[in-house]
């Protein structure tokens, strides 16, 4: 059994966001309906500078249904950074990291503690 499901269409949009934001990061919040992540919101507090898309907690009240996050690593390293691990628990349980070059294989999902989360991509 996968830990979570995600709509292929949504995943494709996230990969595209990663590509179009490169070499900056993007940060989105994931919304889960039932057992499937099928919506996202771009984080309004996102700093789209060259360094990082660091989340600004006081700029963004979390809406209901927010279950996690997705962000890109332009470096291509698909693993949570120390900063990610501090940030994840504040935003939910499921966290997708997308790495350059942003193909269908260039992403992984992690729980808030950084352990791997298995995902089933559904059509
Ligand atoms: Zn990160």
UniProtKB/TrEMBL annotation:
Keywords, alphabetical: Hydrolase, Metal-binding, Metalloprotease, Protease, Zinc
Gene Ontology biological process: proteolysis
Gene Ontology MF term list: metal ion binding; metallopeptidase activity
InterPro entries xrefs: JAB_dom_prok (IPR028090)
Listed SUPFAM superfamilies: JAB1/MPN domain
Coiled-coil segments: none
Domain JAB: 11-109
Keyword Iron-sulfur: no
Keyword Lyase among UniProt keywords: no
Protein name listed in UniProt: JAB domain-containing protein
Native source organism of the sequence: Methanolacinia petrolearia (strain DSM 11571 / OCM 486 / SEBR 4847)
Taxonomic placement: Archaea, Methanobacteriati, Methanobacteriota, Stenosarchaea group, Methanomicrobia
